[in-house]
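Team,

Forwarding the record for the chain on the shared tracking sheet. I've put the sequence and predicted structure together so nobody has to dig through attachments.
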Amino acid sequence: MECRCGKFVDRLGLHGLSCIKNAGRFPRHSAINSILKRSLTCIGLPSVLTKDRRPGGLTLNPWYRGRSLVCDTTVVDTIAESHYIISAAIPGSVAPDAKTDKCRKYNDLLGNYYFQPVAIKTTGAYGKSTAPFLSCLAKKLVNILGNPRERQWFHQRLSLAMVRGNIASILACVNV
């Protein structure tokens, strides 16, 4: 079967996870940003979703060392054709590359804001700097809201956003 981008789609439809024309990429990205925004608001850090340069969000109050938090989400497909060689040579190397790209993109913001790239693989695994950030956010949710299950619920919301986006991406390529 052929995708609308012209590439071959195998019976699993995994091409959809990395296809430029997939339908799930933007909704998945927006859902993750929305979950982060709601979580930051719950812990007393109101934030806005920015649209100009597309970082995911900006807190209106300081997050760390008197600086507001700017975070931007990136979802990396480690099984994409473009990542085969680097993933095979150095396991786990694709997400750090995505983090480096995000830091380079927002380099001029680093002095005034605390920038946190949120790198998540399509498999659901978090990038190295993303895992501690999300754990800190989940811990603050537990402390503020007083329910120890908030941590699991937070990670479940993120997982569901990933799965829904992945499904939309795969189905869009399979049902062309």
